[in-house]
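Renewal narrative, Specific Aim 1. Our central claim is that a sequence can be written position by position from structural information alone. The example that follows is taken directly from our test logs and has not been curated for this report. It begins with the structure tokens describing the chain, in the order in which they were read.
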């Protein structure tokens, strides 16, 4: 199997492959050592090689022979044009390289084959995404008109998206809007960072409850940058508990405490207001009991 990547940022070969695919570090290293990595058709066999933007990166990996693991999807709402699902943890939103598990979109495709031609080929039905370890509510398009409507609604900020997050410390203000531009971290292409000249990014938060060392927040997105909530909360000095990429290297919680807890929008076809709420999953509830 050959994976093709259009490189959009400068970075080390191994780091780009790690961020742009779901391949393990072992498989990446093996393919590089076996001369199975190519940049614009030429073999590259050093992990530390700096890859420039606007190049084509290809990596050959052995085809998986084992059957991929299915995940039962919790459908909160179903109609002719879209679904609302409650995404579990440890599940990528759409196919990205190699994985032992089917992605969210691939699992839904098994249940509803008609989404195969909805949206982009590699991510059927996907109009927005959640990180692999972020749980909670997501919208999946079921029809072409649903896809086009929701892409436009999200772009125009007509879909209200709220998250529940546990952070370290207690923010100075009980509620506030964090208005800080976000760009790719020049020192680490996997990460994002608040930088002048980055894309406009706004995040609202409100303290729901305070503890001795933590605060539980209701967080609302006004834009949808990659890792936006995690980046903004770290930026104000209150990183998300369990987030090892942004300011929390050691944590007993195995993933960021971040859950998509509420969606509100006007039905794109019928015009009625819809509201969906998702409780915290068991692992986050259990963690709350220990603090």
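The sequence written for that structure reads:
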């Amino acid at each position: 199997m050959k994976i093709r990547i259009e490189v959009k940022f400068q970075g080390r070969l191994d780091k780009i492959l790690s961020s742009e695919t779901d391949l393990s570090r072992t498989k990446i290293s093996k393919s590089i050592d076996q001369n199975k990595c190519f940049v614009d058709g030429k073999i590259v066999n050093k992990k530390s090689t700096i890859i420039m933007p606007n190049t084509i990166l290809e990596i050959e990996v052995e085809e998986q022979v084992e059957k991929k693991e299915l995940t039962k999807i919790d459908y909160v709402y179903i109609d002719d044009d879209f679904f609302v699902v409650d995404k579990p943890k440890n599940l990528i939103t759409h196919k990205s390289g190699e994985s032992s598990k089917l992605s969210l979109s691939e699992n839904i495709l098994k249940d509803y084959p008609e989404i195969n031609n909805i949206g982009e080929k590699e991510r059927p039905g996907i109009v927005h995404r959640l990180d692999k370890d972020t749980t909670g509510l997501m919208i999946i398009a079921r029809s072409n008109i649903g896809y086009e409507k929701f892409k436009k609604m999200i772009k125009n900020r007509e879909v209200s998206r709220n998250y529940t997050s546990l952070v370290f410390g207690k923010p100075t203000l009980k509620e506030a809007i964090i208005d800080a531009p976000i760009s790719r971290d020049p020192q680490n292409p996997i990460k994002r960072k608040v930088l002048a000249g980055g894309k406009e990014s706004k995040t609202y938060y409100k303290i729901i409850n305070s503890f001795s060392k933590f605060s539980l927040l209701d967080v609302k997105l006004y834009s949808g940058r990659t890792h936006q909530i995690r980046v903004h909360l770290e930026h104000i000095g209150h990183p998300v508990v369990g987030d090892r990429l942004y300011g929390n290297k050691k944590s007993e919680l195995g993933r960021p405490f971040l859950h998509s807890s509420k969606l509100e929008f006007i039905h794109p076809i019928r015009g009625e207001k819809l509201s969906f709420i998702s409780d915290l999953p068991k692992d986050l509830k259990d963690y709350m009991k220990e603090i």
